[in-house]
Structure prediction request, 310 residues.
Amino acid sequence: MASLIDLANPTRFMRFSAVVLPWFAAAAAVLVCVGLYLAWFVAPADYQQGETIRIMFIHVPAAWLAMMFYSMMAISALGTLVWRHPLADVAQKAAAPIGACFALVCLLTGALWGKPMWGTYWVWDARLTSVLVLLLVYLGIIALWRVLDEPLRAARAVAILTLVGFVNVPIIKFSVDWWNTLHQPASVLRIGGPSIHPSMLWPLLILAVGFTLFALALHMVAMRSEIMRRRVRTLTILEAERLDRLAAQGAAA
Amino acid sequence: MSALGPHAGFILAAYGVSALVLAGLTLGILRDHRAQKQALDALERRGAGRTPGREAS
Prediction:
C-alpha cells in the first residue's frame, strides 16, 4: 500500500507509466487479436440468436468498461474531495472520455443487436435507459471540465457530480433483476457462476481483459497528457510573470 | 458475408462502428499527448519557470 501511495505522485507516475505503457499496449494488442480470432472463427453460433451472438463479444466488454471507468472515477472523486490527492483529479479527468466512448459503443452495438433480435433498435426499458443516463452523465462531466478554467476548482465540482452520478452504476447492474426489461439478465457475473457455454465464455473473457488493458493504456497516456497540460499552464503563467517583471524593469530604466 | 447469415449487415456494422469510435478515441488521446509534449518542450527550451539565479549559472 505504501508503494502505491509513493507511486501516486505526478513525477513518479510519469516514470512508472513510461515503463509500463508499452507492455500494457502490447498485451492488449495480443489479447484483442486472439480474442477476435476465437470470437469469429472458433465460437459457435448461438442456438437462438444465431450469428448475431458475435456482437456480444464487443457489446459486453464495452458495457463492463463503461461501468468500471465510472467506478474508477468515483474512487478518484473521493481522492479529490477527502484526501485532495494531486493525481486523483488527473485520473478522473483522463478517464471520462474513455468511459464515455465505451458507453457509446455499448449503446450502438446494443441497438444493432436489438434490431434483428427484438425487432427494434431502442426501447425505453430500465437497462437501456440507465446506460443512456450513464453516457449523459459522462458527457456532463466532460462539459464541466471544459467550462471551469481553474483545474482545482473544476476538480471539486466534477468530483461532486461524479459521486452523485455513481448512484446510476448499481441501477444499471441490477436493473434487469429489479424491473421487467427486454434486456436479458446477467449471464456471466451472476450468483451460481456463468450460464454461458465455455466456447463463448473464453473468447468473451479474453476480449474483456484485452479491452481492459487497452483502455488502461489509453488512460495512462491521457493522464500523462493532463500532467503535462498542467505543467504547461504553470510554466506559461511563470513566463508571463517574468516578462511582466522585465517590462517593468525596462520602463523604470 | 453469407457465413454470417441474414443479419450480416448488423454484425459488421456493430464491429465497424466500434472500431470507428475506439480509433477516434485513440487518435484523439495520442494527438493531445503529442501537442502537450511539444508545448512543454518549447517552454522548457525557452527556460520558462527557471529562477533568474539558476538561469545565470
User: Anything to note?
Assistant: Chain B touches chain A through 32 residues (CB under 8 Å). Chain B has a mean pLDDT of 85.
